[in-house]
Amino acid sequence: MEKIIYVLQRDPAINIEEYSRRLRHILAERLRKLGAHGVQVNVADHAVAPAAGLRQGPTRPPPEAVLNIWIDSAIAKRRQPVDEAIAEFSPVFWAYLVTESVPVRNTGHPPKPGARTEGFAQMAFLRLPQRLGYDAWLDMWQNTHTDVAIETQSGFEYVQNIVVRRLSGEGPQFVAIVEECFPEGAMNDYRMLFDAPDDDEKFKRNLRRMMESVNRFIDADTVDIIPTSQYVIFTPWR
């Protein structure tokens, strides 16, 4: 079984709520019938509007939805029906084969099939800085920064998707796609985001530590960050 992440851009003629509904209900069911073992939809819908200040990135237009799909094989010929189904719902999409690491599993707010997960999910799309080799970058991220991110933020889920290769011919050269879930209030309260809602000194300390760590392996002007609502439709484990 392999995991593919599809990064989607919406047809502007369709409003975001209708787009979300189509992905979660119509497309997800079609993917199930095509043999998908799991589907998760992340979409930048109205529920995450308060997190607009967290958005950043060079990709234009920015993606508005992400599909996590688990299928038997990502070989082009075998996944073609999946690509064709997604193309009916999104005029532009990029597909990435990934390996998944879950430093923090969501045990505090377990998702209910098809329902919106509590809080919000911040998606970060990482590119390899020119100043770093791949092995050095990966070591900094996973063996040093992972603990910093967990210790300085209020996240209750942390998923690291390392890109193995691009499956579509076009699209940015992302090396990783990260999902971090935070409490609802952290959408527009940075103190809550950094696990210090009532402590200014802790907030400053956590923010400084986090930024120092991030700047070691990410160039800020190259990373795309998109707040989303997470909908776990079905998974290989349920």
Describe this structure in words.
The protein contains 5 helices and 8 strands; from the N terminus they run E-H-E-E-H-E-E-H-E-E-H-H-E. With 238 residues, the chain is an alpha+beta fold. Strands 1-3-2-8-5-7-6-4 form an 8-stranded antiparallel barrel. The protein is 30% helix and 30% strand. The chain is globular. It has one domain (2-234): Alpha-Beta Plaits.
Integer-rounded radius of gyration? 17 Å
Largest sheet: 8 strands, antiparallel, barrel
Output the strand order for the largest sheet: 1-3-2-8-5-7-6-4
Helix content bin: 25-40%
Query: What is the N-to-C order of secondary-structure elements (H for helix, E for strand)?
Result: EHEEHEEHEEHHE
Give a count of the beta strands, DSSP E runs of length 2 or more: 8
Mean pLDDT, as a whole number?
95
Low-confidence stretches: none
CATH class descriptor: Alpha Beta
Provide a concise account of the structure shown.
Helix content is 30%, strand content 30%.
Which secondary structure elements does this structure contain, and how are they paired or packed?
Elements: E1 2-9, H1 16-33, E2 38-43, E3 65-71, H2 76-87, E4 92-104, E5 120-127, H3 134-152, E6 157-166, E7 174-182, H4 190-193, H5 200-217, E8 224-234
